[in-house]
Amino acid sequence: MEQKITSHIVKGLIIAAILIVVNIIGQLTSYIFEDWYRWIGTVIYVASIIISAIYFSNQNNQNVNFGILFTHSFKTAAVITSILFVYTLLSVYFIFPGQITHFVQQGIDEAKKQGKSAAEIQEAVVMARKVLITSFLAGGLMINLITGALGAFLGAALAKKNPNFQPTQK
């Protein structure tokens, strides 16, 4: 009986769900604003992609090469990135809109320390909200893709491969 290969979509859904739970915990505890906490999601993301590649290699009895492992892992990362983008969109606008407010308030406090006038601060607040939302969405998308590519590369490099790889006919 041939072992069933776990789809990159299933892996991506599971990993994205874990990352969303970690983010929600951070939001609810306000740890999300701490620098150290932001790295937790990144470490989980990269480690899970590496584990995914190793698991895929094992499911194929190591009859894979670097390219196949990287492709499968990057597809997993693409699924995760897509789901996290939708979550970030919902989070910024509906679930945790206070996150943007927190960063804007930090900017206001800094502007007051610099002696800016109330009119200058008010004008900057409107622009800051737009820039922050765009940064969260575009930055999150790019960071997740780059981090996913790194995880896929490491996973493909670390997973056992068959040096005499021969593609199987299906």
The share of residues in extended strands comes to under 5%
SS elements, strand count: 0
Largest sheet: none
Helix coverage percent of residues? over 70%
What is the domain tally? 1
Q: Which regions contain 5 or more consecutive residues with pLDDT less than 50?
A: none
Structural class determined from secondary elements: mainly alpha
Order of helices and strands: HHHHH
Question: What number is the mean pLDDT?
Answer: 91
- Rg, Å, rounded: 21 Å
Gap between N and C termini, in Å? 15 Å
Number of helices: 5
Shape: elongated
In short, what is this structure?
This protein has helices spanning 8-29, 35-59, 66-95, 98-113, 118-158. By secondary structure, it is mainly α.
Secondary structure layout:
Layout: H1 8-29, H2 35-59, H3 66-95, H4 98-113, H5 118-158
Helix pairs in contact: 1-2, 1-3, 2-3, 2-5, 3-5, 4-5
Describe the structure.
It is built from five helices and no strands. By secondary structure, the chain is an all-alpha fold. The protein has one domain (8-158). Helix 1 runs antiparallel to helix 2, helix 2 runs antiparallel to helix 3 and helix 4 crosses helix 5. It is elongated, with a radius of gyration of 21 Å. The two termini are 15 Å apart.
